[in-house]
Design brief:
Layout (H helix, E strand, L loop, with lengths): L1 H34 L6 H33 L12 H35 L1 H30 L4
Length: 156
């Protein structure tokens, strides 16, 4: 039935828009504002903001992964992973896997402790590093989104 594919695509796109849009907001608006003095304690404020977005990002990445798997299976698209022209399929899985690892494994197990300990020693340097890492992840995400949209619509 084509309705299930349309629904799965819509859910996939909405999940990615929410997730990567949130990463963009944090990367280009919130973190620079904190770095520039928008809060008395920028690292504590970042943790509060990140905590509010974390559960949303977890839901979005989970929905993106489930809908992506469903679409790949339903469209019999597994063979695309063997074709270099479908590099964006690998990129989607890689970006999803990185964020899923960070959100579901690294943050709860060690990332929060590492952040607090490093921020206690060097708050400005820690914020600078977090901004740099967010920029790298956002850039990889945006290249992947662009590649997926172009690739899914016939390529260049």
């Amino acid at each position: 039935m084509l309705a299930d594919l349309a629904l799965a695509r819509a859910l996939h796109v909405l999940a990615v828009v929410h997730w990567i849009g949130g990463v963009a907001m944090v990367t280009w608006v919130i973190l620079p504002a904190l770095r520039d003095g928008a809060a008395d304690d920028p690292t504590a404020m970042f943790e509060r903001i990140e905590g509010r977005f974390s559960w949303q990002a977890k839901i979005s990445t989970l929905l993106a992964g489930l809908s992506g798997f469903y679409l790949t299976d339903r469209l019999f698209a597994w063979e695309r992973f063997a074709e270099p022209a479908f590099w964006w399929m690998h990129a989607m899985v890689a970006v999803w896997a990185i964020f899923t690892f960070v959100l579901f494994v690294a943050e709860p197990l060690f990332l929060h402790r590492w952040f607090r300990a490093r921020a206690a020693r060097d708050p400005a340097g820690t914020l600078k590093l977090v901004i740099r890492m967010h920029r790298v992840l956002l850039t990889a995400s945006l290249v992947t989104v662009a590649g997926a949209v172009i690739g899914a619509h016939g390529g260049l």
